[in-house]
Amino acid sequence: SAVISQKPSRDICQRGTSLTIQCQVDSQVTMMFWYRQQPGQSLTLIATANQGSEATYESGFVIDKFPISRPNLTFSTLTVSNMSPEDSSIYLCSVRVGGRNPEAFFGQGTRLTVV
Amino acid sequence: RKEVEQDPGPFNVPEGATVAFNCTYSNSASQSFFWYRQDCRKEPKLLMSVYSSGNEDGRFTAQLNRASQYISLLIRDSKLSDSATYLCVVNMPSGGYQKVTFGTGTKLQVIP
Fold this sequence. Notes:
The structure holds two protein chains of two kinds.
Chain A: E1 4-7, E2 10-13, E3 19-25, E4 31-37, E5 43-50, E6 56-57, E7 68-72, E8 75-80, E9 89-97, E10 103-106, E11 110-114
Parallel strand pairs in A: 2-11
Antiparallel strand pairs in A: 1-3, 3-8, 4-5, 4-9, 5-6, 7-8, 9-10, 9-11
Chain B: E1 4-6, E2 11-14, E3 19-25, E4 32-38, E5 45-50, E6 55-57, E7 60-65, E8 70-75, E9 84-94, E10 97-102, E11 106-111
Parallel strand pairs in B: 2-11
Antiparallel strand pairs in B: 1-3, 3-8, 4-5, 4-9, 6-7, 7-8, 9-10, 9-11
């Protein structure tokens, strides 16, 4: 299993500002994943963060808007830049454990409201 | 067609009832399947894995039908505490690794 500590748990931010979300894992993992979950929706993958290389972004998400850092195998940050009300959402980090049939574990989530 | 589809519900059932959810997936090469539970304002947590032979954990039974490409979750003797959103999760091969794909979730409300 894996235990992920994510912070902040929630924030209310002014439009045009940026927020950095942190995730700390209790074990070393190769990949960390960042998701967004909008109200009433399922999880949408933003990007995959690999240690030592640039993150891989999914369609519709770009590095300038969601820069990611992955300085070591237990830590990652996601920044939501130049925020607008449309960025209001829950942001979740995740890791996968288990070789052939990996199970996903999640941080507690960051509830972001942009006003 | 969505890669993983679920009926969003809500399913409103009385305490003690039996309720079943289905989830269909598009990629026949998918290899592993899970049901996650997400409480309001919380992160998803694994409820149970779904094996080809089916598996049971107390009041919960999960089954996989590869031929028809669906998985199911059966909850017997529903409790108020079962009220949550149930996410179907499928690991699909994609570019040499396993892509974790989430359904939109099925909302269950157990009523006293």
